[in-house]
Amino acid sequence: MGEGSRKYQSDKEIPSAEKTLGMGCEMVAAYASNDGYARHLAASMCSLFDNNQSEEMIRVYILSNRLSEENIGRLKSIADKYGREMVVVELGDVRSRFPYEIDTRGFDVSALSRFFMAEMIPAHEERILYLDCDTIVKDSLTPLWELPLEGYALAAAMEPTVGMNIKGQIDLTREDAYYNSGVLLINLAYWRREKVQEKLLDFYRERDGRLFACDQDTINGALRGKIRLLDPRYNFFTNLKYFPYSSLVVRTAEYAAVTKEQLTAAKKNPAVLHYLGDERPWKRGNLNPYRKYYTKYLAMTPYAGTKKETGMELYLLIYHLMEWMTLVFPEVRFAINDTMGMWVIDRRSRKSRKTS
Question: How much is the pLDDT for 341?
Answer without folding.
Answer: 62
